[in-house]
Design a protein that fits this description.
Blueprint (H helix, E strand, L loop, with lengths): L4 E5 L3 H10 L4 E5 L2 H10 L4 E4 L11 H10 L3 E6 L4 H9 L4 E4 L3 H19 L14 H13 L6 E4 L6 H10 L7 E5 L5 H9 E2 L11 E2 L1 H4 L4 E5 L6 H13 L1 E2 L8 E2 L3 E6 L3 H6 L5 H7 L2 E4 L10 H9 L6 E2 L1 H9 L5 H13 L5 E2 L1 H7 L13 H12 L1 H19 L4 H8 L3 H10 L9
Parallel strand pairs: 1-2, 1-3, 3-4, 4-5, 6-13, 6-14, 7-10, 10-13, 15-16
Antiparallel strand pairs: 8-9, 11-12
Helix pairs in contact: 2-3, 5-6, 13-15, 14-16, 17-18, 18-20
């Protein structure tokens, strides 16, 4: 465990012993009065500080002055005080305190705070994940993921949104790895199971619980004890199954199929869906109370077509440790213009295909051969009209114009969170035109966000 330099301002001898005991294993420096505290804060460097506010029977909250001095020196200031009126709490935070706890429960509060503080330090230095575990150079995506990492060591549920193939599972794994939880990362794709099979998979079952249950099996909820349960495509879960899951989330207790003995599991939940949860709720396909349980902090991942700078970062990553390829300028331009409807997953399959081929230098003809018939992204900031013109020459004007319409409609749908009536109003298009576009992209009316 990383050793921290910790400052404690506390005038009560017994309270000093309690704090010292709770901070065992770290470098602890004590002060019992304001003058000593200010001198130590000025001359020493501390990661973390715990501050009492009343330093003596007739003291007028002089500990508040130490908080301001600590905050000015970059110390993470935590108040542990029996004075916890709203006015005092507000004043402490105003002066730079980062946390405030009432005295009396130091045993659990200090341990939890240390755990979160250490995890947040690791998360703050985790910029290398964008070059290894979750590849992106997109500033908005990096900022959003960086913010999510701050919540990784907490119990807050996380909800990941975005089209299929954008990296939701990879991000969920990264968040688990930065959570500090000792248990396993357990992932399950809810869309791959019928209701009955999903219940058995999540909760487990006892031998003989149903036809074919020759042995007992532990469920995914129990496998995720002290770890993370990642529920991918949670929006496909039936309402009946959602109700059962909700009860397990609320109580951290559930019954395996065929068992009268409850199981308990302390798991943290991360969930994902490619559909807009609010749209699912409006259509009666997601329970509002379940949504409230799973959306503590939400990350929305953009499609690869909106992260053009990521394409060759990912290409280099996929070739790392294996066969290296090169691309002509024309091939690079074609890959950057391509819509990538399958997102990162499609790009990975494409690079795997090229790596297995005979060519080491990939040209435009090879790219067109393997991406033949697929839409090319028309909306480009650098020469968009040229890209549309080239597309019209390659596939015909009617097909190219349909492609432009599909791109515009898809973008507007994303901006409107999948509300189709809003898109039809914004673009002044008919229902027939909208659904023709969805059909060309292989989306049903119900599946479209």
């Amino acid at each position: 465990m990383e050793k921290l330099d910790i400052f404690v301002l506390e005038d009560d001898k017994l309270a000093q012993k309690v704090m010292t005991s709770q901070l065992a294993g770290h470098n602890v420096d004590l002060a019992a009065d304001l003058k000593t505290a200010l001198k130590k804060l000025e001359t020493n460097r501390y990661h973390l500080g715990f501050f009492d506010l009343m330093l003596g029977p007739s003291d007028d909250y002089s500990g508040l002055k130490a908080i301001a001095a600590a905050a000015a020196r970059g110390v993470y200031a935590v108040v542990v005080s029996s004075s916890d009126s709203d006015a005092i709490i507000d004043r402490a935070y105003e002066l730079g305190a980062r946390d405030f706890y009432a005295k009396g429960n130091e045993g659990s509060n200090v341990a939890e705070l240390l755990r979160k503080f250490l995890q947040n330090r690791r998360a703050a230095g985790a910029s290398d994940i964008f070059a290894s575990a979750f590849i992106t150079g997109d500033r908005a995506t990096r900022d959003m993921v960086g913010e999510a990492l701050k919540y990784a060591p907490t119990e807050l549920p996380l909800l990941l949104l975005g089209p299929s193939g954008t990296g939701k599972t990879s991000l969920a794994r990264v968040l688990h790895e930065h959570s500090g939880r000792e248990g396993a990362f357990v992932a399950i794709n809810c869309s791959a199971y019928t209701e009955d099979l999903l219940e058995a998979e999540l909760f487990g079952y006892r031998k003989g619980a149903f036809t074919g249950a020759a042995d007992s099996r532990k469920g995914r909820l129990l496998e995720a004890h002290n770890g993370t349960l990642f529920l991918d495509e949670i929006g496909t879960m039936s309402l009946n199954m959602q109700m059962k899951l909700l009860k397990a989330l609320e109580e951290r207790c559930f019954y395996p199929l065929g068992s009268e003995k409850p199981e308990r599991s302390d798991f943290r939940i991360i969930s994902a869906t490619l559909e807009d949860p609010q749209d699912l709720i409006a259509r009666g396909k997601m329970r509002f109370d379940l949504f409230q349980r799973v959306h503590g902090y939400t990350v929305t991942l953009k499609p690869l077509a909106e992260r053009r700078e990521d394409i060759f970062l990912l290409v280099q990553h996929f070739m790392k440790g294996g066969r290296r390829l090169s691309f002509t300028a024309e091939a690079r331009a074609q890959l950057e213009a391509y819509a990538w409807p399958g997102n990162v997953r499609e790009l990975k399959k494409f690079i795997d295909l090229l790596s297995s081929g005979a060519e080491g230098r990939v040209g435009l003809d090879t790219v067109k051969k393997h991406l033949k018939g697929q839409p090319v992204r028309a909306a480009r900031a650098d020469g968009g009209a040229d890209a549309v013109y080239a597309d019209a020459l390659a596939r015909g004007l009617e097909s190219a114009l349909e492609n432009v319409a599909d791109e515009v409609i898809a973008r507007n749908l994303r901006e409107n969170n999948g509300v189709r009536t809003k898109t039809m109003a914004d673009l002044k298009i008919s229902t027939r035109l909208l659904y023709a576009s969805l059909k060309r992209r292989g989306l049903s009316q119900e599946a479209e966000k």
